[in-house]
Amino acid sequence: MRFDQVWFRYARREDWTLRMVDLTVEPGATVVVLGRNGAGKSTLLQLAAGVLRPVRGAVRQRPGVVGWVPERFPADQPFTTEQYLTRTAAVRGLRGGREVDHWITRLGLDDHRHTRLAALSKGTAQKVGLAQALLVSPGLLVLDEPWEGLDSHARTLIPQIVGEVTAAGGAVLVSDHRGEIAGLPDAIRWTVTDGTVKTERAEPGDPGEVVVEIAVRRTDADTTMARLRADGHRVLGVRTERPR
Ligand SMILES: Nc1ncnc2c1ncn2[C@@H]1O[C@H](COP(=O)(O)OP(=O)(O)OP(=O)(O)O)[C@@H](O)[C@H]1O
């Protein structure tokens, strides 16, 4: 898939959110989209998924099956988890409930099968959002901050699922403002700054790098990570337990 000289702004006379984006995503690639709050990560992902259309330029060769997981799953729909996934499966041309059952179990949604979407917690609703994107094996999987609100078990599933999609030849684009990139080996990084996108390959074992561990107050974690990134550092992860 290719971004061909893509420009995007939300309204005429507004500043461009993205300018002249020229990028290629190869089949089987994992791309992690980084950038400060409001930099344009979600916008870029929505352009990739086809949810937004470029104002100038084009997104070309988008795979036929796109799995799109928005930052917030729209849970204000009058269905239970099972009803919603069954309907989505039917729209995607699937017959029988095999894929629905598979993803309900894999994502730990069994207890919420008959719960209305509106009554789900944010994290559980996110899992339904993930399940609907995976019912049919996607040629392109686009995940906007998929770790937000997920429990620790579900968080570990994300790298596994990404690995399975890429092993099957699908490409994955995932935005990440928490530094969970450490769980995604061989990812390419796109950093969105001032409307443009820089691309580089993440090399966790780069001999020019060392890993510095720091402890900060829990409440300062987000601002500290933002400052570190703004200074050009790579945030590899966040953990709450003490080092042994
Ligand atoms: N629907 C919209 N209409 C108008 N402006 C928007 C809309 N959505 C986003 N924007 C603006 O576009 C810019 C980029 O937003 P975007 O959501 O893509 O950033 P982001 O990097 O994903 O941020 P975050 O990390 O906070 O999710 C921001 O200035 C935002 O306020």
From TrEMBL:
<keyword id="KW-0067">ATP-binding</keyword>
<dbReference type="InterPro" id="IPR027417">
    <property type="entry name" value="P-loop_NTPase"/>
</dbReference>
<dbReference type="InterPro" id="IPR003439">
    <property type="entry name" value="ABC_transporter-like_ATP-bd"/>
</dbReference>
<dbReference type="InterPro" id="IPR051782">
    <property type="entry name" value="ABC_Transporter_VariousFunc"/>
</dbReference>
<dbReference type="GO" id="GO:0016887">
    <property type="term" value="F:ATP hydrolysis activity"/>
</dbReference>
<keyword id="KW-0547">Nucleotide-binding</keyword>
<dbReference type="Pfam" id="PF00005">
    <property type="entry name" value="ABC_tran"/>
</dbReference>
<dbReference type="GO" id="GO:0005524">
    <property type="term" value="F:ATP binding"/>
</dbReference>
<feature type="domain" description="ABC transporter">
    <location>
        <begin position="1"/>
        <end position="219"/>
    </location>
</feature>
<protein>
    <submittedName>
        <fullName>Putative ABC transporter ATP-binding protein</fullName>
    </submittedName>
</protein>
<keyword id="KW-0813">Transport</keyword>
<dbReference type="InterPro" id="IPR003593">
    <property type="entry name" value="AAA+_ATPase"/>
</dbReference>
